[in-house]
Amino acid sequence: MAEAIAGVTYSLTEKGTVSLSDSPDTIAGQLKQQKLKRESLKRSIDNTEQSINKVRTLMGENLQKPENEVTLQAVLKMEKSLENDRDEHVRTQTTISVLEQLQAERK
Predict the structure, then answer these.
(1) 30 in helix, strand or coil?
(2) In the chain, what is the straight-line distance between the N-terminal and C-terminal CA atoms, in Å?
């Protein structure tokens, strides 16, 4: 995130020195990478939502029965993963917005 906000990329060498780059190509590369990440997260969110909905539809009230504890725990784990992916999607979209603004300012 710091790289996106500053509009630079940095790397740390074995000797402890820092190398910075703030070229438009670097911003464009970061922007492309973040957009790919956003699309991947979106697919993951969609797939997880579909899986959860299918299990809940198939199991209905039976999902709460003690003999289905393993299935219930799997659904709860998927819901937690879904929540994490949604949070990461928001962070990624924020990064994209910042990068797009930086890119526009440099043109």
Answers:
(1) helix
(2) 22
